[in-house]
Amino acid sequence: MTLERDDATDTRSTDPTATDGDRTSGTGARRRLRSLGTDLSGIQASAVGLAVLVALAGLLATAPVAAGLAVGSSASSVAAGPTAPVAVEAPGPVGPADRPEISGGFSRPTYTGVAGDPIEISHTFDNPDGPAYLLIGGNRLSDTGEPVGFVDVVKLTGQTTTINTRTIGTDATSANSCANATCDLEFRDENGDVVAESLDDLSAFTGATGAGGLARPLVPQRYRLAITNGTFVVSDDGVVTPTAAADQADLVLEKPSFRDDVEVFTTADRDALGEDADAESLGVLRENGAERSVVTKGNRIVLGFESTGIWGALSHFAAERGAGPIEAGEAVDHRVLADLLEKESGVSLMVRQTNPGMNERPARLDLSRADPEDVSLIVADATELESPDAPGRFYLVIDTSDGDHFTDDPEPGDEFSVAFALEGTEGERYAFADGQEPPAAFASASGPDDAAQFPYWEAADSTVRAEASFTVRERYLRYDHVTEDGDLLVEADEGQLTGTTSLLPRREMTATLVNDAGDAPFRDESPLEIADGNFTVDVDLDGVSPGTRLNYELYEGSTLRDSRTLIVVGDADNPDELVIDDAPDNVTVTEGGNLSALRVVARNAGGLTGEGELALTVDNGSLGGSWGVRLAPGESRTYDFASVPADLDPGRYPFTLRLDGDTRGGTLIVEQDPATTTIDDEGDGSAANGTDADDGGAANGTDDGTEASGDDGDSEQSSTAPNGSDSDGGSNGTETDGGSGETSDGDTPAGDAPDSVGMLLLPFGTREALGGTVLVGAVHILGHWV
């Protein structure tokens, strides 16, 4: 844990341009340096950790004039490039003959970076007779009230030096630090006498320089940089200064920042990438992925996080594992991230299942158990946060196949939460563990309840968090048009098989369709194309008629993924479509007859056996009938309505035929029965053949003035029965096969209905002859049959 109680008043100056001399006295440093001058052998024998050079608070604080350096700024640097050499004379009689003046300079007067991240320093130097050194530090870095000198001395090589601000001044400092490398350093007193020289490291000077006051990693504030030749003067009052400095610059560290959202997308598994798997990068992952938080089982979920202030620690762990430098766009051993989460207090990352079953532990991601094939770590440049010399963003690529990286294998339906946080407890600050100098880079002091603390949060800061979620789903292809038996339907005209899928576009799949039953074998191969969660298979069905059945097989490479029957239809949305192929527009019948003249040809236009109802409606329901229709693909059949009586008065009536969504309309014309005479209520009706009733004419035009008489005139009876109607009153008419003339289900075929027998004789008690003419009609007078 890394907390330090901040109860005491923070005496550090808030002015980043103030010198150490402006803030504190050098009493503690002088006391320690006196012990250095009186017993050098004891100093050399007391190597106690990282050596941090001299308390150069005197260089820029109590003795700025003697050091020859301006306070608070670079006296000889310009932003355009390296500055000219500057010679700095040491105070007193120290002779410069042994060490010539060093020349060189920084490329800019101020370097700006983020606390906790690496920073690259560009420079030039020239020391013909020896090495050159970079002094880092110079401001007071603790709240102890003691002055602190430069926290590290690095041996210069090349044109740039990278400072890891997370580990500088600790036991994990850089390889070129004089704590680890052989450095030719020389210390003289004010009389020019050598006090110490040729020390292999700075560990003997830890207590003398005040570097033991480094209470925490370099925090956001201003620090000093200087290029020297490795010769220093120890004054009587304990101030240690370089005899010469070629140039100085400022290093300004800013507070880390954090992006509070997580980028989420899915990408194909390694097997699907094939040759591209070895060249895996963000570009390849995006090209073969989709921007969605639902990941198909076996595919990979990609989680992107963005933060500054963590890259120095990640760089250190990468170097420890021999993983090479961390560079944007490159993959890194995922165990580097695991090391950060384990050793760096205040940085946490949790991927955890949120919907476990009853009595089940939630599955969670465990990076320490992950195989490189299952989890990979890719770094990238920041998209929003400013990170001058560090990537700023990292992506965790997690395979959802079975493996050891999850405590329980993820299954379709599992939901996971993702949380990345930089933790903070208000009123606390991170502090190195006590009891050793230099401090251990990743050993922190314990805090209340062992709470975690991000090293660069101040006492007023609290936890910041970025959260997301994702769901695992099954691998599937879901076809748009399928029968209840699972057979696929494809329209003959369109020739396209369609559906939805959870597979990503990278999957290369081929559909094969075969039919060996016909006269000419049929075979077609087409790729299954995937885009935006949908798939299509284009099939050439030229010359293939509806109703044809094909064998369908789907392959991924040489692996069979699906095998079904495919049926060619006219309309995939209505594969057993029944249509009215032919029906008359006008039908004429005799009053009291039947509708045998209304003949309808029905056909199955689909590819499956269809069932439906052929329904007739006359005059909005005054008459009607129906047929149950069942037809095989391509089959036609003729139906009539001979069993439907024409119980309508003479006139014109609209009719409608309906079959499975197909509708036809027409006109039914009902003509008066020529054997019927109608007489109106006033006795002036006319005979059916034009004879006036007033003339007493007979129904066929005979006029002898005689009226037909009945029994008693009191009983009223119907004189006719509905011609052509079934004796059982059924509504079905006559059904015939198209052109076959065969009956269907025992019904009378069209054309065989009984001929009309005319009107039945009235039920008179006796038949009377009137003028030699037989009465064959009925006369209705005043509501009575006579």
Runs in which pLDDT lies below 50 for 5 or more consecutive residues are 1-97, 140-148, 204-211, 685-786
Q: How many E-type strands?
A: 45
Q: Share of helix among residues?
A: under 10%
> Largest beta sheet: what is the strand line-up?
25-27-30-29-28-31-32-26
Q: Report, as a whole number of angstroms, the end-to-end distance.
A: 121 Å
Number of helices: 10
What percent of residues are in strands? 25-35%
Task: Characterize the main sheet.
Answer: 8 strands, mixed
Question: Which term fits the overall shape?
Answer: rod-shaped
Q: For the CA atoms, what is the radius of gyration?
A: 51 Å
| Whole-number mean pLDDT | 74
Structural class: mainly beta
Sequence-ordered SSE layout with sheet pairings:
Blueprint: E1 4-5, H1 20-23, H2 27-38, H3 40-45, H4 57-62, H5 64-67, E2 103-106, E3 110-114, E4 118-126, E5 133-137, E6 150-155, E7 160-164, E8 186-189, E9 194-197, H6 206-209, E10 222-228, E11 231-234, E12 240-242, E13 245-254, E14 263-267, H7 270-273, H8 282-287, E15 289-290, E16 294-296, E17 300-306, H9 311-320, E18 331-332, H10 335-343, E19 347-353, E20 375-381, E21 392-399, E22 415-422, E23 428-429, E24 464-473, E25 477-479, E26 488-491, E27 496-501, E28 509-515, E29 522-531, E30 534-538, E31 549-556, E32 559-569, E33 578-582, E34 586-590, E35 594-604, E36 610-618, E37 623-631, E38 636-645, E39 651-659, E40 662-671, E41 735-737, E42 769-770, E43 773-774, E44 780-781, E45 784-785
Parallel strand pairs: 3-13, 8-11, 16-24, 26-32, 34-40
Antiparallel strand pairs: 1-23, 2-4, 4-7, 5-6, 5-10, 8-9, 10-13, 11-12, 14-15, 14-17, 17-21, 18-20, 19-22, 20-21, 22-24, 25-27, 27-30, 28-29, 28-31, 29-30, 31-32, 33-35, 35-38, 36-37, 36-39, 38-41, 39-40, 42-43, 44-45
